[in-house]
Design goal:
Layout lengths: L1 E5 L4 H12 L4 E5 L10 E5 L2 E6 L2 E4 L5 E4 L19 H27 L4 E2 L9 H10 L7 E6 H10 L3 E3 L7 E3 L7 E3 L3 E3 L10 E9 L3 E10 L2 E8 L20 E5 L3 H14 L3 E9 L4 E7 L5 H7 L3 H13 L3
Parallel strand pairs: 1-2, 1-6, 6-7
Antiparallel strand pairs: 3-4, 4-5, 8-13, 9-12, 9-13, 10-11, 14-15, 14-17, 15-16, 17-18
Helix pairs in contact: 1-7
Length: 333
Amino acid sequence: MICIFSSIDDYSTTDVMKWLHHFGKEVIRVNSNEGISNDSMKIDISNETFSFQLDGRTIRLNEIEAVWYRKGSNWLCDLFYPVSVDDHQGFTNYLNYKLKVEEARLSEYLHYIIENTVPFLGSSTKGDLNKLLVLSAAKNVGLLVPDFYISNHKEGIGRVFDQAPDLITKSISDGLYQFDNTDKNTGYFTFTEKVDHQSTTDLADRFSPSFLQKNIHKKYEVRVFFLDGECFSMAILSQMDEQTKIDFRKYNEKKPNRFVPFLLPDDIDNKIKSLFGKLDLNTGSVDLMVDQEDDFYFLEINPVGQFGMVSSPCNYFLEKKVALNLIQRCKKI
């Protein structure tokens, strides 16, 4: 069988599973956020192999032919019971912290066993990359990266604007992406925003470290889905709409941006492949921006980014390609 580690609300996983069923492959899906209680799962580990019981069925490692790390983390290890010490909140907090450490070590070992036994797509540990380190790696393989600055004081921000008056700001990590469970029509998000010197005049002398980056006046954006050495690219024509000019995720539902198939220049294609090799990743989504001089700027990699948005408009059938990739990995055992 093929084992997919994912999250309960990931539609791409469901679509890939449909293709796998179409091709006659058995699939087991383990979700990281399905609310599995401590009492509903059993796990046994011995001699660098393991088995687990899910929904009343026992799955043994030697039954798994290939693994796809799609979404989430800590899929098999949310099994440690919290503890409480009466009248000693500090010690209670410490003990629960130590249990989290135990959980992390167990998770690390389980995936070590998997990855030394079974062919796998994706990564158990690299779903949330450090963007700053990735920008450095992108530079090292020859990709252009917009100049960026980080400062936590008003004087420093002023010096940044003296060097580069046209700037945007965004989070250093992935930022906010949270839906309100009590009201499905409400969500909380952070976007890339343009920032000018005037808007910073009321800042306090000290504040949290803030990320500023040179604003690239784009001709268009490019989203790339990388799958095991092959790039599938799409141009996003977002530059002519004031609503999506800085961040196309501020979708214009009345007049949507055009998404069209795109062929990367050979040198950019090769550099992206080199970057994935350097990061030891075999899949992920890449964001690029092309300026008015047709220069390609690398923005980021999301190892678990949505690829349905590239697949459907461009007729790439990426869900089928992922399914076939997993089936091919089964043959490597």
